[in-house]
Amino acid sequence: MPELSQSSFQIGHLTIKPVLALAPLHEITDKAFRAFIREIGGVSLTVSEMVSSEALIRKAHKAERMLTGDGGHPFAVQIAGSRPEAMADAAIIAEQSGADIVDINMGCPASNVTSCFAGSALLRDIKLAESCVKAVVKAVSTPVTVKMRIAWDDSQKERSDYIDFLKMFENNGIAAVTIHPRTRTQQYTGRADWAFIARAVELGMKYPVIGNGDVITPEDAEKMILETGCNGVMIGRGVLYNPFLFKQIMDKSFCVSHNKRIGITIRFFEMLMKLYDERETLHKIKKFSGHFTKGIPGASGLRQKLNALHDPVDILGELKALQAMLNENKGN
Ligand SMILES: Cc1cc2nc3c(=O)[nH]c(=O)nc-3n(C[C@H](O)[C@H](O)[C@H](O)COP(=O)(O)O)c2cc1C
User: For site-directed labelling of 191, which of 93, 255, 277, 318 has its Cα 20 to 30 A away?
Assistant: First the structure.
């Protein structure tokens, strides 16, 4: 196997090097988070949060905001929907907003999405899924990719219906497929069954296969490539728990001091403050502070303190005081 840090693959005309992608995470991978992860380094492809195609075409502000790039490339916008015409219009809006790739969501398990036949519900209706794929591929000149689960439920998994989908994608010009090998019924429980990624690779489709699911450490990323032969690795929660993960995959000797961790958290929170109003900033800061302060001396006390604060400026003040203390003690 070539060194992971030296490998690359193509999505259409775009070179993905390193072969690492940040997974779309609804309400997490916004512009600020993606820019923050890019700044740390090691990632090539980033993907927007899932954007509803219906919301995009009625110009909903929140949906339009999700299209914002993070300053780096390649950047994919992921659209969800089940009405081919709406998907096509949404894809055009995404392309015009600067997306390098349009990704179709065939994995979301949330019932408000699947009740509209979108997300993982498309896996139950290959004809409808094909109409959506055809409409989007025809509408844009960017490469179109798909991110999918392997089945709706166990019986569909046992029948390996996903193979029919993989062939349908090839026949309709899909430029890459990301496989999250869980069923919709599983939601996020159990293990991601990487054998389903390996089977997809063995089919030898024209497009690259990106593996996804349960990559938490640099060793997991290497193991996924070795065990499945996938072209790339997409990581979601692992990066939320450890924003330095991509960097560590690329550079095994990379170490993060507590000071650095606090410093980068402060920078990220400052980015959030620039982007959002006070209420939304606070909501986001509280979501991230638990993860980002893990392992820091006195972290649980710090988290309690931060949780009691209701002004982002006070939270930043608390983190800066901790940073100054760590600097004084040279603690890292
Ligand atoms: C909070 C959360 C939000 C997610 N939002 C999306 C989304 O918007 N689009 C999507 O395709 N997948 C979404 N996913 C699924 C992830 O992209 C990914 O497939 C899944 O978490 C498995 O990868 P991981 O183990 O690296 O996290 C989400 C997952 C979580 C936990």
Answer: 255
CATH number of 258-329: 1.10.1200
**Is the Cβ atom of 109 under 6 angstroms away from ligand 1?**
no
**Radius of gyration of the chain, Cα coordinates, nearest whole angstrom:** 20
Q: Which CATH superfamily is domain 4-250 in?
A: Aldolase class I (3.20.20.70)
Half-sphere exposure of 181 (CA within 13 A, CB side): 23
| pTM metric for this prediction | 0.96
Between the CA of 320 and the centroid of ligand 1 the distance, in Å, is: 31
Q: Quick check: 332 pLDDT over 60? A: no
Are 4-250 and 258-329 equal in CATH topology? no
Cβ of 220 closer than 6 Å to ligand 1, yes or no, is: no
Tens of pLDDT, residues 104-123: 999 999 999 999 999 999 99
Domain spans, the chain:
4-250, 258-329
Does the CB atom of residue 49 touch ligand 1 within 6 A?
Answer: yes
Distance CA 251, CA 268 (A): 22
Known catalytic residues are: 108
